[in-house]
Amino acid sequence: MPKVIHAACSHDCPDSCGVLISVDDLGRATRLRGDPNHPVTRGFLCAKVAKYLDRVYSPGRVLYPMRRTAPKGKGVRNGESPSEVFERISWEDAYQEIAKRLSEISERFGPEAILPYSYAGNMGVLGYGSMDRRFFHRLGASQLDRTICSTAGGEALISVLGRKIGTDTELFAKAKYIIAWGANIHGNNVHLWPFIEEARRKGAKLVVIDPYRTRTAHCADWYLPINPGTDAALALGLMHVIIAENLHDADYVSKYTHGFEELAKRAQEYPPHRVAEWTGIPAEDIVKLAREYATTAPAAIRVNYGVQRSQNGGTGIRAITMLPCITGAWKHAGGGIQLSTSGAFKLNKDFLERPDLMQRSPLGRTARVVNMAELGRALTKLDHPPVKAIFVYNSNPAAIAPNHNDVVRGLCRPDLFTVVHEQFFSDTTDYADIVLPATTFFEHKDLQNAYGHYYLQISNQAIAPIGEAKSNVRMFAELAQHMGFDEPCFRETVDEMIDGALNSSDPWLQGITREQLERDGHVRLKLGAPEFVPFAQGGFATADGKARLYNEDLVQLGLDPVAKFLAPTESRHSEQARKYPLELLARKADNFLNSSFCNVSSVQPLEPKMNSLEMSAVDADLRDIGTGDAVRIFNDRGEVRLRALVDGAVQPGVVATRLNWSKLMPDGVGVNALTSERLTDLGGGPTFYSCLVEVEKVGD
Ligand SMILES: Nc1nc2c(c(=O)[nH]1)N[C@H]1C(S)=C(S)[C@@H](COP(=O)(O)OP(=O)(O)OC[C@H]3O[C@@H](n4cnc5c(=O)[nH]c(N)nc54)[C@H](O)[C@@H]3O)O[C@H]1N2
Ligand SMILES: Nc1nc2c(c(=O)[nH]1)N[C@H]1C(S)=C(S)[C@@H](COP(=O)(O)OP(=O)(O)OC[C@H]3O[C@@H](n4cnc5c(=O)[nH]c(N)nc54)[C@H](O)[C@@H]3O)O[C@H]1N2
Ligand code: SF4
Ligand SMILES: [Mo]
């Protein structure tokens, strides 16, 4: 009889699915399926994780610690033997070599010359950030500002609501009007879809606002293609109409918001005809959307991370977040806005990460902070001290970081010591001195939170690690021993760490124990009443409990305290558009997860558009390009070669492609060769979707 183990998908996805893994007598996983008892993910998995056995048992897994024997930049081709690039070494040799090199670098250049580089390849609570943070804090290494995904939107949301929470996913089923705003629900957040379908069966209208005609847009009642990076203008235009026509909720506004006067004044500057010029959305549609949104209840906005990947995306999210605050949509179960629910999980981070272990200078200064969205700059330009070692885990920067060519120039430096802890021979291991094998979520235990619902889960270990793989927690704990770090926290067990994480004073976590999670698999946060309707009666997480329509704290950051639209430096409205007239959307694939899954051969056929550049017929004709033609996409930062696809997915002026492993691309260069290290207005995030290019036809 196979055993069935409860786990939780730890990939970087809002859904955090409950997973059931069947394991046979020989300890082999034979099947996985969604946990039917999970109230949000309800028994189904996305197409890529449904094929997870192929990923866990892939012949491409890193099985042992390995040391480079070939020059840097020579990589392991997907699925091929690593023996021409690396030699197998023991864990003991790997630890000794890493400890020696890190100690030498630390002595000669100071510990800040060491840079950890990680993101959410593993979004488990321990796997994402715990023993690793303790390790680097104790070492005194540079601190990494983990901005690559969500800081612009997160800080924007907090600047209005005070906390990163929003409409309960399950309550979307009660909405009568739903706006998917920069949210690729079918691709990236598929477990929200059944709730939207339920709402639509009961008569709800679905509107999609996205410059790319996603699958969600195809299914929508109304699709509004918007020019990239102009969402703040649209939101202000909607507020213009809502306020001018007295459709706002004056009672809610006066009781629960701060700064309405200033906002109303600003909104006057955004009449629909003016907003239409920026956004490309006709003025009459702006008026219609404003009226429908403000007069239908409950009205829910699922704004996702698309908006905040443009240069002024922080302000875009701020302005959108204000909409339910002025219409009072928060009053209704099924109204409001959801960007992320992650702020609901206030686990004991100080215990997990131990910032108190950080070495301080005599003046009390903690280690310098390096923004992960500026990795190219950090590796090629940073001084005092220069980065001499980079330790990568949970991330594949040679594929996902902007300004790829500078990142690679940095990673090729012979004097840079690079360690990569990975499940696969990724783009980044192609530059590693040492590669260490990492477990998947089948192979270790963890606690799992979510950014798309309010359930905490336990993910049990289902199978023994493949090869000599080790979890992040175990690897960093053992490396700490080799560095001579003798604090007891480096010897804690996984269960002790989970218990410590749950030991939080936050009321929403009270009474939730590891034993309960182990028994039930998932537990809903203690959000009070069965229906969680935050802000129905104000209670925003700000100093005075009011939503901030005017936020004076932003002045210090050089921003307008009221939302204001500014066109990105790279957009059709800017000077640079004369040289590079096309706005590139360097999007994610619907069936990969950032650069994860790109290499799994059974998943690859799900993405037939992978090496395509989607173009409008207008732009293709102008350049004498037709579907199937080889094209060169270029700007001052780099160039990429793809095949043109004229399929109606984008409007004139916009082109789109998808993220992939660089080495799986025709020329070995991925789309981030084109994107810049320019940062967002808020939160220091990357600007993947503010990127100008030109396209030309090339011979085959
Ligand atoms: N299948 C799959 N699922 C994923 C991921 C994946 O790679 N693949 N990635 C995961 C991760 S890390 C994240 S952060 C989430 C992100 O999930 P989403 O928030 O959905 O993020 P994106 O796909 O970046 O962008 C969403 C949409 O915004 C659109 N967009 C781009 N620019 C603009 C703009 O200026 N305005 C507006 N209104 N829309 C714009 C894009 O075309 C895209 O369709 O998904 C997670 N889930
Ligand atoms: N052009 C463009 N670039 C983008 C984006 C985009 O939309 N367009 N999206 C951005 C966004 S939103 C994000 S979040 C980033 C994501 O960037 P990353 O966080 O780098 O995400 P992945 O590409 O999924 O790579 C994660 C890696 O971690 C490894 N991994 C998984 N689990 C573990 C583990 O337990 N231990 C260790 N050591 N390794 C593990 C996986 O094998 C994988 O190679 O990419 C960003 N880059
Ligand atoms: S990637 Fe997302 S949708 Fe797919 S199984 Fe994991 S959590 Fe669920
Ligand atoms: Mo992300």
Short description:
This protein has 700 residues and is α/β, with parallel strands linked by helices. The longest helix is centred in the N-terminal third of the chain and has 19 residues, at 91-109. The protein is globular.
Architecture overview:
- The chain is an alpha/beta fold and 700 residues long.
- It has three domains: 66-148 and 347-524, Rossmann fold, CATH 3.40.50; 167-339 and 534-557, Dimethylsulfoxide Reductase, domain 2; 575-697, Barwin-like endoglucanases (Beta Barrel), CATH 2.40.40.20.
- It contains 23 helices and 27 strands.
- The strands form seven sheets. It has a six-stranded mixed beta sheet, covered by helices on one side. Strands 23-25-24-27-22-26 form a six-stranded mixed beta sheet. A five-stranded parallel beta sheet has the order 10-9-8-12-13, with helices on both faces.
- The chain is globular and about 70 Å long.
- The model has no long low-confidence stretch (mean pLDDT 97).
- Bound molecules: ligand MGD (2 copies), iron/sulfur cluster (SF4) and molybdenum atom.
- The site of iron/sulfur cluster (SF4) has 11 residues, from loops.
- Iron/sulfur cluster binds next to loops.
Corresponding CATH architecture of the largest domain: 3-Layer(aba) Sandwich
User: Could you say which small molecules are bound to this protein?
Assistant: ligand MGD, iron/sulfur cluster, molybdenum atom
Rg, rounded, reads 25 Å
In round numbers, the mean pLDDT is 97
If you consult CATH, what is the topology of the largest domain? Answer: Rossmann fold
Which term fits the overall shape? globular
The largest sheet, given as strand count, sense and whether it forms a barrel, is:
6 strands, mixed
Structural domains: how many:
3
Helix fraction, binned, reads 25-40%
Q: Please report the number of helical segments.
A: 23
Level-1 CATH class name of the largest domain: Alpha Beta
- Strand order, main sheet: write it out: 5-4-17-16-15-6
> Structural class, judged by helices and strands?
alpha/beta
Report the span from N to C terminus.
55 Å
